[in-house]
Amino acid sequence: MSNNFLRTVRVLASVALLATNIVTRPAAAAQPAGVTRTDLQRHDLSAPGREAVQVRVDLAPGIAFGRHTHPGEEIIYVLAGRMEYDVDGKPPVTLKAGDVLFIPAGTVHAAKNVGDVTASELATYIVEKDKPLLTLVK
Fold first, then answer.
1. Computed from CA positions of residues 62, 63, 66, 71, in that sequence, does the dihedral angle turn out positive or negative?
2. Residues of 116-133 as b/e, b for ≥16 C-beta within 10 angstroms?
3. Is 89 helix (H, G, I), strand (E, B) or coil?
4. How far apart (Å, rounded) are the C-alpha atoms in residues 115 and 29?
5. Which part of the chain is the Cupin type-2 domain (predicted)?
6. How is residue 21 annotated by DSSP?
7. Residue 47: CA atoms inside 13 Å, Cβ hemisphere, count?
8. Which residue from 78, 82, 77, 85 is spatially nearest to 117, judged by alpha carbons?
9. Could you give the percent of the chain with pLDDT greater than 90?
10. Which of 7, 92, 103, 116 has its CA 20 to 30 A from that of 69?
């Protein structure tokens, strides 16, 4: 292989790495310390303009995820630990592994790990496409 070809490959690889960092940096910055969100899958639904999104959310002990909404329904399955959910219009509820929760579209809610180990949930969203999955509420 020629030196020019190798130099071109190195430059293209550097550009790709830089572009990845620029694109992913805002998402990483928006995520609070102690919260890890892992996108698992996203698929169009048969209902026009709707999609299903599944995300694993892990919260370190004592960590809270502030008040927010989603542009559709959220179905929660607690995988591990104990989480307290504060859903507007309802008293707070504490769930443990194996428990479920339904949050209607647009409902303001928050979650907090109230245990002493990392708490995890599987969040399934049935949402409008092309809208932010999560909107923080002041």
1. negative
2. eebbbbebbbbbbeeeeb
3. coil
4. 25
5. 56-120
6. H
7. 8
8. 82
9. 76
10. 116
Q: How far apart are CA 94 and CA 119, in angstroms?
A: 12
For 113-124, how does the pLDDT look when each residue is reduced to its tens digit (9 = 90+)?
999 999 999 999
Number of neighbours of residue 103 by Cβ within 10 angstroms: 22
Reading the block at residue 30, the tokens are 């928006």
**Mean pLDDT of all residues in 28-46:** 86
**Could you give the CA distance from residue 109 to residue 16 in angstroms, rounded to a whole number?**
38
The string of pLDDT tens digits covering residues 55-101 is 999 999 999 999 999 999 999 999 999 999 999 999 999 999 999 99
